[in-house]
């Protein structure tokens, strides 16, 4: 395989990595966590406001609180799994771009 082909393949790998990283940037890895925490704060305020004055029996409130906490933990777990998966894709794309760059250096610039 000639050096020109190495350069072309390296450029192609860089373009694929750029597409993956661009897509991931749009999805905003850390922005998802920030938005999630804001939603939890709003839900907590709504829950507290609903039972602030006229509260039902303590058992009902405790059951609803446990249900709320279970839903919140499930959402947090799913969100953390999503964030971890996206970070793996991002690191994979960075590795792909690095390999592509090295291939371009070996092959020289296309003429």
Automatic annotation (TrEMBL):
This is Uncharacterized protein. It comes from Agrobacterium salinitolerans. The lineage of its organism: Bacteria, Pseudomonadati, Pseudomonadota, Alphaproteobacteria, Hyphomicrobiales.
């Amino acid at each position: 395989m000639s050096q020109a082909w190495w350069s072309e393949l390296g450029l192609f790998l860089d373009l694929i990595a750029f597409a993956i990283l661009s897509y991931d940037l749009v999805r905003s890895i850390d922005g998802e966590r920030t938005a999630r925490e804001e939603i939890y704060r709003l839900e907590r305020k709504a829950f507290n406001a609903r039972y602030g004055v006229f509260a039902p029996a303590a058992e009902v409130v405790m059951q609803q609180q446990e249900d709320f906490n279970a839903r919140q933990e499930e959402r947090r777990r799913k969100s953390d799994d999503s964030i971890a998966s996206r970070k793996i894709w991002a690191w994979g794309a960075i590795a792909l771009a690095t390999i592509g760059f090295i291939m371009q250096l070996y092959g020289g610039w296309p003429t």
